[in-house]
Target: UDP-N-acetylglucosamine 2-epimerase (non-hydrolyzing)
Amino acid sequence: MTVFGTRPEGVKMAPIVKEMERREEIESIICITAQHREMLDQVLNLFEIEPDYDLNIFKHGQTLTEITTKALEGLEKVIIDEKPDVLLVQGDTTTVFAGALAAFYQRVKIGHVEAGLRSGNLYSPYPEEANRKLTGILTDYHFAPTEKNRQNLLKEDYPEEKIFITGNTVIDALKYAVKEDYTFDIPLLNKLDYKEKKVILLTSHRRENLGQPMENIFTAIRDIVVKHEDVEVVFPIHLNPKVRDIANRILSGNKRIHLLDPLDYEPFTNLMAKAYIVVTDSGGLQEEAPSLGKPVLVVREETERPEGIEAGTAELVGTSYNKIFDELDLLLSNRDEYNKMANAVNPYGDGKASERIVDIILENWNL
Model:
């Protein structure tokens, strides 16, 4: 059984679901919590996945407690009815922790896809760092994307024979979604001159960045656009009204800053493939952008994905105005510095992670 509830989980679980569909030895049961609703539905449509169970727990203004309790109660019934041999969860959302806990209560083995990520700060990212650590305690099979993730788990005394390096399934998903001749439904994105202009793709939504940190990020972006006449910014704004208020106050009114509603996964990844630089506080984009050869400036104080930093394809710039402005200014002004990041080796895998994960499951059942 695969359990997922948000768009990022859906994107990274979809290649595994498709791989399991190809294997005669596996009966695949798909259960979604719909912690996100519309954004998750977009992914299901793109990858042509039809869930067997849809808990549909989403409601506006939902709290972490509501998500946890609704998911736990709904999943308990499904697990009791289906009695899966293994339950797979992916990543670090509240659905992931609730899924692992529900499986544990029914003595069902748990496979954690994207195991071993650690920022070292329990409250950053919040609540994801806690979710991934709590899930790890309950997990039987840790599918770690990288060697560093494996080392994190070994430091926490998880059994070596239960940790498997697989690469990250997001690379598998990107190979499916990004197309050379892609046409956007939004006319503006087709009209942008990606060859002559330097398009910055901006995303920012983390709870810990709300307030002054986010104001610093957006102000630095605005001032960079004023300084560099060949720069355009595309910002698909998160639905969180607090993010939207700050973005509209600081970034609206400039003809080269384009504020959009959130994009579906397919147009978003194709926009990223055409962009010049990515500025983000997202976790997943730190993996996706390097695989497309895009420098990433990470506007956070810590990251659980240090591999990109160490490889040189991403830089952790924090949330101070001066640091963000200076690093962007350097990449936009100095082609050598840009090329160093753009040409760095992607550390997150080769697009075969899903195949490896399914093989490991079958090997453990001697199939």
Notes: Residues 64-82 form the longest helix (19 residues). Residues 115 and 144 are 5 Å apart (CA to CA). The chain has a mean pLDDT of 95.
